[in-house]
Amino acid sequence: MRVISKRSGVQLLLVTLAISASGSVSAQEQNPSDPSIVVNGVRTAGPEIKGVISARNGDKMKVTSADGTNTIVAINDATRIEGGGGLFGVNRRKLAADSLLNGLPVTIKTIQVGDRQSDDGLVASRISFRNNDLKTAAMIRNGTSQRFEEQAAATESLRGRMGDIDKYNIKSTTNVHFDTGRAELSAQDKAALCTTASTAQATENALMLVVGYTDATGGDDFNQQLSEKRAARVINYLQQACGWKPYRMLTPTGMAKADPLASNDTPEGKAQNRRVAVNILVSKSVDGL
């Protein structure tokens, strides 16, 4: 008669449990549903991105942050899209991908898929925004504004054409300045922009026209791109940090080294010319009403 010791039976049970636990852990490690876990070195949690949707193309969108950085993020059927309202962003509701409109400020949680050096390696796991911002983006898309729909000055044709600038009165101009070849805003300039936006909010029917400039340093192509980048940086800050609504913004432009405020023959003059002019305008047809 064979006798199996209790010690041997216990050892066999422990080995079996260890193998089972090891298999369970291995399965968990290979579960790709958790974006914080790396699977074969190609999938992990990505950065959180905050900015404004500046372009859409199929299942990809470009998000522009407050510092002007552009990030390409893909969306898929698993992406959770939420609009929030109320105190502290509660009362969230799940929305479809067609709610992701150009001009909409969003916060995106991402998953890194593939090579971290790839521009196309980020997939959105969750996209959230405020319902009020969605309403504003929808008004931009429709070319109308509830505040200005009764005013001829707020029609898309007037807001979109630089050729109609003579139809506006300039109520004030704020200039912010930049270092040579740079487009970063100083803390002082950021404060000045929000002060300008706050003052303009109190002006009925006010619109903004933002124009970027450079000094005479560098070539024409470089200066054109730099002036446009400076204008874009100011617009992003006005909208994202200062609360200026996008539908109250005329089409921006970059003027490179044209229209200098001072001579480009001196360092002091060049410093004055490296600027973005934020003009507060009111249509002549409604000014004073």
Structure description:
The radius of gyration is 27 Å and the shape is globular. The N and C termini lie far apart (110 Å). The chain is built from 6 helices and 11 strands. By secondary structure, it is α+β, with helices and mostly antiparallel strands. Helix content is 29%, strand content 27%. It has 2 domains: 97 residues, Nucleic acid-binding proteins (OB fold (Dihydrolipoamide Acetyltransferase, E2P)); 139 residues, 2-Layer Sandwich (60s Ribosomal Protein L30, Chain: A), CATH 3.30.1330.60. Strand 4 and strand 5 form a beta hairpin. The strands form 2 sheets. Strands 3-2-1-6-7-4-5 form a 7-stranded mixed sheet. The longest helix is centred in the first third of the chain and has 24 residues. The N terminus is likely disordered.
User: Strands of the largest sheet, in order across it?
Assistant: 3-2-1-6-7-4-5
Contiguous helical run count? 6
CA-CA gap between termini: 110 Å
Helix content: 25-40%
Largest sheet data: 7 strands, mixed
Overall domain count: 2
CATH fold call of the largest domain: 60s Ribosomal Protein L30, Chain: A
Instruction: Give the overall form.
Output: globular
Total strands: the figure is: 11
> Which CATH class of the largest domain applies here?
Alpha Beta
Question: Order of helices and strands, N to C?
Answer: HEEEEEEEHHEHEHEHE
Mean pLDDT: 76
List the uncertain runs.
Answer: 1-41, 86-90, 143-163
